[in-house]
Design goal:
single chain; about 650 residues; five-stranded antiparallel sheet; 11 helices
């Protein structure tokens, strides 16, 4: 499974098989339980087919061997293993049970008990799984690895018994055949605006068939269109898949599996063209296996799966952060409580950068891989929560991605061993994110010529005065997209050399904004009488002292003035029309003076600055509502020379 970037579930079903074969060897190195030469020959011949994945032929020969010798214990065991590899757990259990009855030795019995415990767990027969696992643990006293595995499975059987019949309100539906048109499609990713669905396609049903990345877009009626190859620059003769896309849909990180194994690569989009991919380099990639990336909305954190040394378990979730120069720092293991001694795969970090979804087979659950969520509080990941049934069951679930509003999700599910489809589901209220935020998008252009601009778009958290994201609008079409997280106040700042900056204010501290905002931004060239409003300068009621939440914006203006020392500006204060006009004029002047004083304290030359208070004389809107009066209470920045 992990030999390719699809990471399909067949490999995860192989992992217990590997354990069993390791367990099998010492016990079965003794003489076989039959002397029947014909039966032994058929048994040996069958194994030649089994190791090549030709299960039908192997099963036929093993049955013939048993017909020759109906107490051929090892043939029953190998028949059970072959049935399981072929996906027939019922027949596998029948064979294991028969082998168990025939075996007089505890050393062999524990092999069958271990196999039966695993099989019954994977078919949702929790009581039978628990019974066999308890018998195994009563016999096995030395092999700690298998004891830990059996103990985990027993715990999961208990969990399954308690939660059998549970329905938390998921409404799962398969996407139509327009999207699910290939034999196998999996690992969906979705843009923050929810308009593009990107996923991995396997052209055939065989494990070694080629894989590529495809994209489906919504039409004007909100329906998913037929998927197409994402780009000839990305899809090659190698196997590409398991991707993540940035919030704005212009930065793709994905897995390429070639002659040297699987590593992570990235490609950036200019206009409608994806650049040729480049490796993320040795700080992210290693000599091990890397795949299944998930990029945070701000583009500064990358989560992925690796089996490299230094982890907690087998396959762990790792992450890397960008440094001040924009390069990926050395990857760090996410650690406990997310990672376990077993396997964690398919991470997805929500656009709010606080909720992580992933699949694990090492936590309390229904058996196999379940979907879990963990929330980051005070920079610490909380204990993962099983997301419950019927989303999770005794089958394997994985590649779960959640929409920006936190209300819906997409994931892939296998239908048999050679077919998989992409599904959509709602998310029950108890699992919905607490911080939704919003998506703001549009086009940045020249306010005079309407030419698209590649402007810098920054977002600041006003409670911490930290920049939480920075990106650029597209150099070809000027498009931008920013995810504004919830539960705080934010300053939005757009700048481009030669132009006056533009700012906005978002307050999501008390309520979420569920409807995406579309805001086209026209930047004004730096010239006489060009004006912009400083929307993130705050004063307490009836006061002229600057509130600390203003510092992010003020520092951005300081940077602008230092980059443009040849201009002179007027800082003007404005009020609404409530109260005595003389008082309003004096208050507006004092506030303008406070802003100028801050600039002077940061090294701006006094010759660049003038201040004036206009009181209520220059309203932007009528003073007929509180919302309009709030707009009129402002600080303006005007180029005067």
């Amino acid at each position: 499974m992990f030999a390719d970037c699809s990471v399909d579930l067949t490999m995860k079903r192989i992992i217990p098989t590997v354990i069993l074969f390791l367990f099998f060897s010492p016990a079965f190195s003794q003489a076989l339980s039959t002397k029947n030469k014909k039966a032994i020959d058929l048994y040996i011949e069958a194994d030649n087919y089994r190791v090549r994945g030709q299960y039908d032929q192997a099963i036929r020969l093993l049955k013939q061997a048993i017909e020759k010798e109906n107490k051929f214990e090892e043939a029953y065991y190998r028949l059970g293993m072959t049935y399981r590899s072929a996906g027939d757990l019922g027949s596998s259990n029948d064979s294991f049970e028969k082998a168990l009855v025939l075996s007089p030795y505890p050393l062999k019995q524990k092999i069958y008990l271990f196999s039966l415990g695993d099989n019954y767990l994977r078919s949702g027969q929790y009581q039978k799984a628990k019974s066999n696992l308890e018998k195994f643990l009563a016999i096995e006293k030395t092999d700690k690895i298998k004891m830990e595995q059996a103990s985990l499975w027993s715990m999961q059987a208990d969990y399954g018994l308690v939660h059998t019949g549970e329905n938390l309100g998921y409404r799962v539906k398969v996407l139509n055949d327009t999207v699910n048109k290939y034999p196998m499609q999996y690992f969906p990713a979705i843009t923050a605006a929810g308009e593009e669905l990107i996923f991995t396609v396997r052209y055939g049903r065989a494990h070694n068939d080629n894989e590529d990345i495809f994209i489906s877009r919504k039409n004007t009626f909100g329906k998913w269109q037929e998927p197409v190859s994402i780009s000839v620059n990305i899809n090659t003769e190698y196997r590409e898949g398991a991707c993540t896309i940035s919030a704005d849909g212009r930065h793709l990180i994905f897995t390429i599996c070639g002659p040297r194994g699987c590593d992570l690569y990235e490609s950036k989009k200019e206009g409608e063209v994806w650049r040729k991919p480049v490796s993320l380099g040795p700080t992210v990639n290693s000599s091990g296996w890397e795949a299944q990336p998930s990029l945070s909305a701000d583009g500064n954190e990358l989560y992925f799966v690796s089996d490299r040394k230094g982890g907690v378990g087998g396959y762990d979730i790792w992450y890397s952060q960008k440094d001040s120069a924009g390069a990926w720092a050395k990857a760090i293991n996410l650690g406990k409580p997310v990672n376990t001694k077993f396997d964690e795969i398919a991470p997805f970090i929500h656009v709010n950068n606080r909720n992580l979804y992933f699949a694990s087979n090492g936590l309390p659950g229904f058996g196999g891989f379940d979907i879990y969520s963990s929330e980051k509080i005070n920079n610490q990941w909380q204990n993962p929560l099983n997301m419950g049934a019927p989303l999770n069951d005794y089958e394997d679930q994985y590649s779960f991605v959640v929409t920006s509003d936190g209300l819906n999700a997409f994931y892939s599910r296998e239908e048999g061993r050679t077919k998989s489809k992409i599904y959509q589901t709602n998310i029950p209220k108890e699992f919905q994110i607490r911080s939704r935020g919003n998506v703001v998008s549009g086009v940045v252009n020249d306010g005079q010529t309407k030419r698209p601009l590649q402007a810098e778009v920054e977002l600041f958290d006003l409670k911490t005065n930290e920049r939480i994201s920075v990106s650029n609008s597209d150099s070809v079409n000027g498009r931008y997209l920013v995810v504004v997280p919830g539960q705080s106040e934010y300053a939005f700042h757009v700048s481009e050399p030669g132009y006056l900056f533009y700012t906005l204010h978002f307050n999501y501290e008390t309520k979420d904004q569920d409807h995406p905002l579309v805001m086209d931004i026209a930047l004004q060239p730096i010239q006489k009488n060009a004006v912009t409003v400083l929307n993130n300068i705050f004063f307490d009621f009836n006061q002229s002292d600057i509130n600390a939440r203003s510092y992010s914006e003020l520092d951005e203006v300081v940077k602008f003035l230092k980059e443009n020392p040849g201009i002179k500006v007027e800082i003007s204060g404005h009020t609404d029309n409530v109260g005595i006009e003389n008082y309003n004029q004096q208050l507006s002047l004092k506030r303008a003076q406070s802003v100028v004083s801050y600039f002077l304290s940061k090294g701006i030359a006094a010759a660049q600055l003038t201040q004036i208070g206009y009181g209520s004389k220059k309203p932007i809107k009528l003073n007929d509502t509180e919302e309009n009066r709030q707009v009129n209470r402002r600080i303006e920045f005007k180029v005067v020379e």
